[in-house]
Structures are given as structure tokens and as C-alpha cells.
Specification:
two-stranded antiparallel ribbon
């Protein structure tokens, strides 16, 4: 296992001179409000409990700075008949505080996938989050987005199916669910989904990036 807290700033795809093996490196940005479950989703993606909770403000854990973890998954998929590693460079962000310079420094090649994390058991209206992300990346960010609802086990307790829950969500969330290039994923916090759902989440990220030809979003320096 290769777990790197800083990582290198490699190009998206690297192949050995013999063409026998390639590495696809994807930059993933986690966004969401406090206690949304961003760090837990990040841990599921890298497959270990690497992201720790931040300091507590009034008893609530808060991430106060951008944090990067990366991990290489050997022989994760085949591409044009060649075995390929997948390197995920996952950046957790402070709630409501996406700092452009920090994103540029941690993802100099751009952001391939934006994971928007929302708690399903709390009333949400995260339109402000979408506005902030659009200011940073422009209107095309939704093509690179995956919407993840955590604490989805509460839907079962309320007798709601995911589709029913979405119809009752805020207009912004309903629109994002329709427009997100990676679709919607519901995660059950009553089980150890951070280890169980890691591979399906990584597969979804890979498919999403491939659908965008592995192009990356760039932070807009002029707004």
C-alpha cells in the first residue's frame, strides 16, 4: 500500500517505456458543509482511515484547512489492453471555505472529480455551496460532479426510498442530482461502508472521469 500525504504533481497518465503498465492519476476534491461526512467519504475512497476529524467548535468537529491524501491502487483496471494503476489524490476542504490558492497548490493539474457530500438525515439547502464551486470552476463543474448522500440509513427508518427522498429535497439538490455527471450515491452509516463501499465509489469516479476524457477543471483566476 502506498499512502502519501503530499504526493507528487504528476501528469494524469504515465506509462512505462515498455508500454506494459500505466498509471492514471486523478485529483478528487471533497466539498460539503460541516459534519456532512466528507472525511469519511475520503477514507472510503483511499481505503484507510487517513483523514482525521478536525478541531471542535462548540462540540462539532470542523476541518480547518485543505488536506491531501493519495493512494495508488495497483492493476486497478485495464486500458486498451494494458494493466493500469489508479492513483487517487483526494483533497478534503474546510466547510464553506474553498480557498482557490490552496486548490491550485494541491491540484496543479486541475480537479478531475468533485464529490459533493450531503447528509440525508438533516434538512439541507446547499445552494450557497454550488454558487461557491461555480465561482471557482465555472458552470461546467457539474459534469465532473458526484453527489453523495451520507447517513442514508435514516431514509429507511423514515420509510423513504432514495427516489422519494430526492423529490422532497431542495430545488438545488434535485437539480444537482439530475445534472451531476457521476449521478447520485447513497451511503448507509449503520454499517462499515467506508470499507465496504470504497471499491464501488472508486469505480464511479473512474467512469465519471473517463466520460470527461480525464479532462480536469481549472480554478478560474479571473471572475
Amino acid at each position: 500500500m502506498n499512502l502519501d500525504r503530499h504526493g507528487d504533481h504528476r501528469s494524469v497518465t504515465l506509462c512505462d517505456p515498455e508500454g506494459e503498465r500505466c498509471v492514471l492519476a486523478l485529483n478528487v476534491l471533497l466539498v460539503g458543509d460541516r459534519q456532512s461526512g466528507r472525511s469519511s467519504v475520503g477514507n472510503a475512497l483511499i481505503g484507510v482511515d487517513g483523514f482525521q476529524t478536525g478541531i471542535c467548535v462548540s462540540g462539532v468537529a470542523v476541518t480547518t484547512e485543505h488536506r491531501l491524501l493519495s493512494r495508488n491502487f495497483q492493476r486497478f483496471f485495464r486500458r486498451k489492453g494494458v494493466e493500469s494503476d489508479l492513483t487517487l489524490r483526494v483533497v478534503d476542504t474546510p466547510p464553506r471555505s474553498l480557498r482557490p490558492q490552496s486548490v491550485i497548490e494541491l491540484c496543479p493539474d486541475g480537479v478531475h472529480v468533485l464529490v459533493v457530500v450531503v447528509r440525508a438525515d438533516l434538512p439541507q439547502d446547499d445552494a450557497h455551496l454550488g454558487e461557491h464551486v461555480e465561482t471557482l470552476f465555472g458552470p461546467d463543474w457539474r459534469r465532473h460532479a458526484l453527489l453523495v448522500f451520507t447517513h442514508a440509513n435514516h431514509l429507511k427508518g423514515a420509510g423513504l426510498q432514495p427516489s422519494e427522498y430526492l423529490t422532497q429535497s431542495s430545488s438545488w439538490l434535485k437539480a444537482l442530482a439530475d445534472e451531476a455527471g457521476g449521478g447520485v450515491s447513497f451511503l448507509d452509516n449503520s454499517c462499515d461502508w467506508s470499507s465496504i463501499r470504497g471499491r464501488p465509489l472508486r469505480d464511479r469516479l473512474l467512469r465519471l472521469s473517463a466520460s470527461n476524457h480525464h479532462e480536469a477543471l481549472r480554478v478560474r483566476t479571473e471572475v
